[in-house]
Each structure stands twice: as C-alpha cells, then as structure tokens.
Amino acid sequence: MRSLTAEPVLDAMARPGAADLTEVGRALDRAERLRSALAQLLTAVGMNLEFSEFTGRAVEIVRDAVDADGVFLHLWDSERQMLVLTAATEGVAKGYLHRIEAQLGQGLNGLAALRQQPVVVNAAPADDPHFRSFPELNEGDYQSTAKLPLFRADRTLVGVLSLNARTPGRFGDSHLAVATELAGLFAGLIDSASTGGAVARRARMLDTLTELTASLASAGPAYEVLGSVTNAAVSAMDADLSVLVLPDPETGELAVRSVAPFRSDVLDELAALGVRPGMSVPHAEARSSQLQGYLKGDLVDRFGFMESAALAPGDDSAGFLACYRRRRFCSEDLHLLSVMAHHVGLALMDPSTRWDGRDQSCRVVFERLARGVFDDETASLASGMGLDPAKPLVLLRGRLAASATPRRDASPPDISRAVESVMSMIVSFYPGSLTYVALNQIYGLIEVADSDGDRRLLKRLGELSDRAGQRGVVLEAGVSGVVPHAVDIPRAFRESNDALVIGAKVGGSRVNHYEDLAGSMHLYRVAVDPAFDHDPTVSQLLHLLEHDRRRGTRLLPTLDVYLSSRGNGSHAAEVLGIHRNTLRQRLERITAITGLDLDSADDWLPLQLAVRIVAIRRSAAQS
C-alpha cells in the first residue's frame, strides 16, 4: 500500500505555476476523502463484524468516497472459478447477492479480472461490446462505470470492485486516484475480515454442536428436541430455512418432522401434496418422491440454494437434514451440515433414546383414528396412554407462529413456551387426553366430562391465545363438535381443521368452535367457488374493493352495514360512527363506482350475500 502523504500538494506549491489553485484543491480533497475512507474501513475491520456485514459496510464507504451511485463487490470463488456478487449498495441488488456470477473475461467485471487492470467506460457502458447485462442490478441505468480488480500481495485475484454512476464522465482522474488507492488496500482488509469472521463462526459452530448434543441426549418431548435440530441448523448455517425429514416407522414414507423457522406457507404446500404436517403420508398418491421433489425443487426456486445431508451417510431414505438460503454453500458449510446430520442419525439409532417413543405411539394413534381405523391394536394403544375412546371427545387442532407484526417493546417470540402453556392447560384440566405436537402444531383428543366441557376448553384456549399474542406469538385453534365415540373421530378431524383454517378467515377470532361457524363456513365455500369469478354483482363489488385498497376508503364495509340495517340510514350511520350526510355521500359514491341500485329493497338480500362473499375473499387472500 502506498503511504499517504501530502507530497503531491507540497510539490505543487513549491513550484509556482506548475499547478493552479484548482488542482491544489482537488489534491487536498482527494487526500481528505482517502484519509476518511481508510479510517472508516479500518474501524469496520476492528469491529469484528460478520463478513457479510463488513463487505456491506465497505462498499458504502467506497461509494461515499468516490461519489458513485452504486458500488458492487464481486469476489473470486477459487473453487468454482467464478466471480460472485457479494456486496452491493443498491437495495434491489441486495436481493441477488451470491446469485449473480461471471467467469473470467465475461462482461466488464470479468474483463478487468482477466487483464488485471482497471476498465473504465465513461459513456454508455451498456453499448460496450464487452458489457454483460444483469437486469437485476439495473446496470442499464448507469452512464459511467469503473471496474477495479483486487489482488493480494502475491497477485492472487480477490475480486472486482465495480463503481457506477448515472451521469456520464463521472470517474475522472481524481475519483479514480482515490478508488485505486482504496482497491490496493481492499484485498488485505477482506482477507482480515474473512479470517476473523471464520474464527468467530467456528467458535459459534462448536457452541451450537455442544448444545445440539445435549438436546439430543435429553428426555424432553420430541417436538422440542427435533425443533432444536432445525433451529441449530438455521443458526450454524446462517440459513433462511431448515427442514428435518424422517421416515415413518410404519409405512417407511418420508415425512417432515421439524421446520425452522416455522413457515405456515411451507406447511400449507406440503399439505397440498397430501402430507399432513408432522404426520406420515396418509394417501397412496403422496409418495416420498413427491416430498423430496418439493423439498429439492419448489423450495429451491423460492430460496435460491439448498444443501442436504443424509442422517445415514449415503442413504436419503433414512431421513435427511436440509438447509436453504439465498447464497451458495461452501465446502465448510457442507462439512458442518454432515456433522449435524450424523449427530441426529446416531441419536435416532441409539436404543436408549427416550424422547421419541411415546411421541411416535401418539402419532400412530392419531393417524389411525383420522383414517377411521379403530381396531383392537389402536384401542389398546390409546388405552395404554390413558385415553378412553368410549367417552365423549372433541378434537383440538392448534398452530403457533411468530407474529408478522410484533409489538416494538415485545421480547423475542417464544413459541416453545406458548406450546408448553397449551400442553400444561390440557394436562391440568383434561387428564386422560391424548396430545401430539409437531412443527408447532398441536393435536389433542380431549375428553369432555359434561355438556359444557368443550365451551370451557374454548374459553381457556382464547385466554392462552391472548397471552401468547402479548409475547409476539400467534396462537390459532379450532375445536370440533363433540363426538360420542372414537369411530366418529374422522368427522372430528375434518371439523377441527375447518374451524382452524376457515375460522381464522371468517370467524373474527383466532380460536373457533366448529358449531359456531356453520353458516360462515357454507358462505366461505361459496365465496371460494371459481363459478363466482364472473358473477356480475361480485365483479362490481370487486371494483369497489379495489377502490378502497387504492384510496384507503371504507366503502365496502359501509355498504355491508347499510344493507345489514335494511336501509335504515340513521341506524347505519350510528353503527359506523359517522354523520347521516357522510353516509349519504358514501352511498352516492358507491353507486357511481359500481352502478348498483341501492334504492331497490328487493335486491338487498342477494347484494348483501355478494358483499359478504367479496369480504371473505379479501380475508382469505390476506390470510
């Protein structure tokens, strides 16, 4: 690295006439920019930031130092012989980090790396014959670009620093002098930050593996232990999603047993394949190949990159641990993933493992009862776990997830604690019940001793849901009607599922009883029927809904209240909390947008049903 001195400035001042005051000012400005940028870069290195955080901060420092509009850092992956986008100042580009690549000589970045010298294009770089377009980076918007190769002292390629501006002729000698000086220092700083980050990461990996080993050796409930596996994988691999897949002991079919972080959209798509979350595959058409295809195909499309490791080396049928993220995995990542999977595989094969026995038996009972299988073996298993199938039962199905809009003052959501609260409530008030927990979903066959038992259960679940919400956790639950005997449990499964899934969209509450939603459920099924896509009244109301969305108005709810009031303007205005004149103006606006005749009482009932259908569609889409 060249030393930073004021020699150019002193030399210019010592020889009058060699440079005018403008040149002296430029030299001073260049020296100050360089000094400030170097100080900030060195401070960033000393902060022991994660490597991704350091590179992200570094490109911002360079951008400010050289007056660029966008700065990208492409690092050289020596294993794959590719330049990989690693850091960016532009917000849009940050979504494509580690996903945009170029070979040596490919594009202007690859050309600078191949020639080992800067490439500067100060007018319409997109017209240069070497230009390679990446629409994701909006590079077509730039009118000036400078590509500066980065090398270690031994001339080993580190990467390319890409400077971009939206005005032509931006990168003159002054800017390039600062940028070149920074580029000379950049490679060493990247090595330093990368090494420091790797050491810190290895320390975290050791801590994670130690905690994982302790968890696998514990006698905790299976959902908690298996959850610790996927949580550990997310933490250690810096992953966006981790999935643990295990074979079903009865059928041999693979089933997802744990997902971290909890992703309801992932579970919904698994359910569409016929895979019930946390349970083995109940339908013949939903085979393990479909599950693996989804995990290795659709999820990769969503997240970018996926790697998996078999719990038994070389044998995916024994189960596997998969991780997904938006940047590529390196060889060190793959080694760590294999070690974690091996730990889990050994724990599963250990005959002393205690956390999965009862849990597996409960799952088997639930699956058999859900399919209507109630033979002597199922009855024996259920009785052995304290359930009396001959007594009145309700089926509880609950699911928990971190709130999408947590309170700013709330502590981090603790889903495990919320699960424990529900389980403790069931154990305390409903002894003899059978419960099963997987993937933050709770299944419970609850014995109700009297006619009000299901209502008391609903009230207690509601209280737990409120408390969970205060801790940033969404707890939703559906309770079936009472079934007099275990042979009726398939109906209870359908009812609890409807109460959970449909109730959350139309019930106005997070905890719902099937019998309270009968009318709303019929209306929901009508609302989602594609036949209503071309209904003239629904189409008119969809225009009104779009108007509300764009303008922030509440015309559709106003129409709903007005129709519910049977055209009584005074009552509707009172319910809405607005003046009669305001109501009149809104109704006139509704008529203008939709063309509906609100003066015809004969049309109110079908119109009110159409309003409810549109409102349910909106709620379902938001859910």
TrEMBL record:
Query: Which PANTHER family did the record assign?
Result: CARBOHYDRATE DIACID REGULATOR (PTHR33744)
Q: Which organism is it from?
A: Longivirga aurantiaca
Q: Which residues belong to any copy of the GAF domain? A: 50-200
Q: What is this protein called?
A: Helix-turn-helix domain-containing protein
Record-stated family: Belongs to the CdaR family.
Q: Which InterPro entries match?
A: CdaR-like_regulators, CdaR_GGDEF, GAF, GAF-like_dom_sf, Homeodomain-like_sf, PucR_C-HTH_dom, PucR_C-HTH_sf
